What does this fold into?
Amino acid sequence: MIYFDNAATTLIKPENVRRAMYSAIGKLASPGRGGHSAAMAAAEKAYECRNVAAKLFGVPEPERVVFTMNATHALNIAIKTLAHKNDRVVISGYEHNSVLRPLNAIDAQVCVAASPLFDEDAAVYAFNEALKTGTKLAVINYVSNVFGYILPVERIAELCKAREIPFIIDASQGAGVLEIDFQRLGADFIAMPGHKGLYGPQGTGILLCGRSGEPLIEGGSGSDSRLPTMPEYLPDRLEAGTHNMPGIAGLLEGMNFVSRLGEKRIFRHERELLAEAVKQMRELDEVEVYSGENMQRQSGVLSFNIKGLDCQSAAAKLAARDVAVRAGLHCSPLAHKTAGTEQGTVRISFSAFNTRREVLQFIGEIKSIIHATRCNRGNSMI
It folds into this structure.
């Protein structure tokens, strides 16, 4: 299989991730739930994972690294800590449903700072106009999961800080690919999944905390058990219940993999594959490619459509040829509304394990689909 659906989940993991998870099942108990060797080993592994994440993302204290089930879980904690009913919240035009739905659930007043694809200055201008007095929160998507568009988070962050507006960064598509310096950005929270650019397993995520958040759920924390409420300190305040130790052990090895390669090297590799795919697809009249002119504001995520085929049909034809892609709205209807692709797109997305040979083979399959579509159209006219 050619696996080009890494923006959903990086299916191909480093071998150490699998080994660590298998080992954890038999050796790691629950951190904070005993003084025996298996519990202590779990506590040490959890701390090691926090420490690696803190170093990778510029977090001053590992305790500010909170484990979550996924980025959606992390974003729910962050949003429901900082926003409440009727609060004015400014978001980018490329936010995922993991941002939109929590905001709608609490009846926040959502203001969309919409701007054209791959236009950095327009994005900054839109936020500058939208961040009016009375704004309680801003949410910034680092990289669009639909188009790979890298938003100018640093510049938007400066706008928020200058106006003392709390802000959250959704780094779901940026973590592990682009440099994230938590202290320099100055965000209140940064959310990310473990199973995408960090090469960890599904069911893992991280919330980087610039402040103490409000618990989404309450329960056992392994600490201060006499308290009727969750502890005030991190990470215990936001980590009720038993930890996913096999997941945390796998996530640790995934982040170690990223640390060894370096985000710049991974980004450069994905961009080279992106450039090859865009070059080849732009030569096909039947393919509409959603990419910037020089791809300076784009990561290894690319949307396209084949003329004469709806995106779902195109993806199904690719799947029949053993090419894994994603089609539809990608849980981001707002991004499609902003970009004018309400009909949806086919999306390909790369990882460190993809190759140029796979890209060329994929292009060959696209050409075969186009040829078959032409033939079918011609036969239908006879």
About this structure: The mean pLDDT is 96. Residues 2-9+262-380 form a domain with the Aspartate Aminotransferase, domain 1 fold (CATH 3.90.1150.10). The chain has twelve helices and 13 strands. The radius of gyration is 22 Å.
